[in-house]
C-alpha cells in the first residue's frame, strides 16, 4: 500500500506577519499586534519581539517594559482574512486535496503527485519559499503519512522550519515528548493523564486502553491511536466550509449600557445573517459570547426545533441568551455565531399556528431584499428602530 504524503502548512505568528508583509518597513523590527493602551494584551508577536520574552496574551505594558522600542500595530482582521484567502488560492494551484484547518493553516494531500514532485523535502522548501516570496509570510511545514503526525511535525521547527516524520521516527521524535505537547490533549486532560503515570506521549501510546476507559469517560480510542502513529482521517476539502458563521467585536473601552450592547449585538447578527444568505443556508444552533473586563468569558447556545433564517426568531433567542449570560458587569467583547447549517431547499419549514405559510414566505423575501441592499450599499442602508435610537443618542452626545 502506498504511503500517503500529507503536508501541514502553518503560518508563523500570522497576525503579526500579515502586518509586516503589509508594511515592509517593519521587516526585522520587534512588532506586536494589539491595542496601545496599558489594559490591552498582545495578540501576536513577531520572532524579533519574542527574543525579548514577549508572547501572545502578555499585557501590553509588560511587553513595553521588556522592549521599549516595540512597534505596536492595531489589529486588522479583514487584512488577515485576505491573506488567508490568498494562501488558499496559492495552494489550490497544485490541484490536490486541501483542508483549511483555520485562518492560517491547512492540510494538503500530495500523495497523487509524489512521482511528479520528486524529492519531497526539496519540494517542501520550494513551496515554503514560494509562500514567503508571494505573500511575505514565514511558515513552517510538517510532512508525514497522516494528518496528526504532520501537525505535530509543523510545530517542531519555527520559524521557516521543515520537519518530516516517517513511521520509523515515532519512537524517537514523538514518544519522548511530554504529554502536554500532544496535539488534541488539553491542560486538564494532560494533568489527569499524569496522575496515571503518563508523562510522555510514548507512555500514552503504550498504556492499557482499559485503564484509560476507566479514568476517562470522554477519552476516545482515536487519541491513543494517534499517539501510536495511526490516523486514517482524509484531507477533506469540505470540512472547513461553513462549520460556523460568526462575528464578534472587542470594544476600545468596556461597555455596560444595555441599549448600546443590544444595538451592537443586533448589528453583529445582521452581518452573520447576510453571510448565511450568501451561502443560501439556514441554521439551527445560535451562540453568543461575552467577555468582561476581567477576561471572564461566557458562552451560551440554543438549538431551534427547525432550521431558520428568520431574523425575528433568531434575534429573540440571541437577546434571551445575552440576558441569561450578562450579569451587568462592563463588557470587553461580545459575539454572535450560527452553526449547524442546511441548504434552504433541504430545510423543513416549522409550521406555526399563528402564521400562514405565505407569511413565512413574505418574511424570507423581505430578509433577502434587506441583505441584498446591505451588501450593495452598506450595512446602514436600512436599519431598525433600535439602531436608529442608538444613533440619535450618539448624535446628541456630539452636539
Automatic annotation (TrEMBL):
UniProt entry keywords in alphabetical sequence: Cytoplasm, DNA damage, DNA repair, DNA replication, DNA-binding, DNA-directed DNA polymerase, Magnesium, Metal-binding, Mutator protein, Nucleotidyltransferase, Transferase
Report the catalytic activity: DNA(n) + a 2'-deoxyribonucleoside 5'-triphosphate = DNA(n+1) + diphosphate
Q: Name one GO molecular function term.
A: DNA-directed DNA polymerase activity
Gene Ontology CC: cytosol
Tell me where it resides.
Answer: Cytoplasm
Q: How and how many cofactors are bound, per the record note?
A: Binds 2 magnesium ions per subunit.
Name any Gene Ontology BP term.
DNA-templated DNA replication
What residues make up the catalytic site? 105
Which InterPro entries does the UniProt record give?
A: DNA/RNA_pol_sf, DNA_pol_Y-fam_lit_finger_sf, DNA_pol_Y-fam_little_finger, DNA_polymerase-Y, DNApol_IV, PolY_HhH_motif, Rev_trsase/Diguanyl_cyclase, UmuC
Protein's recorded name: DNA polymerase IV
This chain's source organism reads Culicoidibacter larvae
Source species taxonomy: Bacteria, Bacillati, Bacillota, Culicoidibacteria, Culicoidibacterales
Amino acid at each position: 500500500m502506498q504511503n500517503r504524503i500529507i503536508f501541514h502548512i502553518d503560518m508563523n505568528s500570522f497576525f503579526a506577519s500579515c502586518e509586516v508583509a503589509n508594511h515592509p518597513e517593519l521587516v526585522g523590527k520587534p512588532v506586536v499586534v494589539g491595542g496601545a493602551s496599558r489594559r490591552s494584551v498582545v495578540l501576536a508577536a513577531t520572532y524579533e519581539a519574542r527574543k525579548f520574552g514577549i508572547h501572545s496574551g502578555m499585557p501590553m505594558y509588560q511587553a513595553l517594559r521588556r522592549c521599549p522600542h516595540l512597534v505596536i500595530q492595531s489589529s486588522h482582521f479583514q487584512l488577515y482574512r485576505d491573506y488567508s484567502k490568498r494562501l488558499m488560492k496559492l495552494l489550490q494551484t497544485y490541484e490536490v486535496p486541501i483542508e483549511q484547518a483555520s485562518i492560517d493553516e491547512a492540510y494538503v494531500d500530495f500523495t497523487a503527485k509524489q512521482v511528479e514532485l520528486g524529492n519531497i523535502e526539496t519540494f517542501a522548501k520550494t513551496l515554503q519559499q514560494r509562500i514567503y516570496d508571494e505573500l511575505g509570510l514565514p511558515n513552517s511545514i510538517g510532512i508525514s503519512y497522516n494528518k496528526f503526525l504532520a501537525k505535530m511535525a509543523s510545530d517542531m521547527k519555527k520559524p521557516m522550519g521543515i520537519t518530516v516524520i516517517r513511521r520509523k521516527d515515532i519512537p524517537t521524535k514523538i514518544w519522548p515528548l511530554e504529554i502536554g505537547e500532544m496535539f488534541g490533549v488539553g491542560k486538564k486532560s494532560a494533568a489527569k493523564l499524569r496522575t496515571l503515570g503518563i508523562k510522555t506521549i510514548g507512555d500514552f501510546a503504550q498504556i492499557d486502553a482499559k485503564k484509560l476507559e476507566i479514568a476517562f469517560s470522554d477519552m476516545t480510542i482515536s487519541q491513543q491511536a494517534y499517539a501510536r502513529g495511526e490516523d486514517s482521517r482524509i484531507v477533506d476539502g469540505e470540512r472547513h466550509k461553513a462549520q460556523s458563521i460568526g462575528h464578534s467585536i472587542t470594544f476600545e473601552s468596556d461597555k455596560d449600557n444595555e441599549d448600546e450592547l443590544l444595538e451592537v449585538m443586533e448589528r453583529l447578527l445582521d452581518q452573520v445573517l447576510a453571510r448565511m444568505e450568501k451561502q443560501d443556508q439556514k441554521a439551527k444552533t445560535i451562540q453568543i459570547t461575552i467577555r468582561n473586563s476581567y477576561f471572564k468569558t461566557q458562552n451560551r447556545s440554543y438549538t431551534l426545533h427547525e432550521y431558520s433564517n428568520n431574523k425575528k426568531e433568531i434575534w429573540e433567542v440571541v437577546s434571551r441568551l445575552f440576558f441569561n449570560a450578562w450579569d451587568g458587569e462592563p463588557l470587553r467583547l461580545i459575539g454572535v455565531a450560527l452553526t449547524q447549517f442546511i441548504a434552504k431547499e433541504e430545510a423543513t419549514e416549522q409550521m406555526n399556528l399563528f402564521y400562514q405559510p405565505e407569511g413565512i414566505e413574505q418574511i424570507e423575501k423581505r430578509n433577502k431584499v434587506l441583505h441584498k441592499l446591505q451588501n450593495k450599499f452598506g450595512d446602514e442602508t436600512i436599519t431598525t428602530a433600535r439602531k436608529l435610537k442608538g444613533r440619535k443618542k450618539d448624535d446628541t452626545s456630539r452636539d
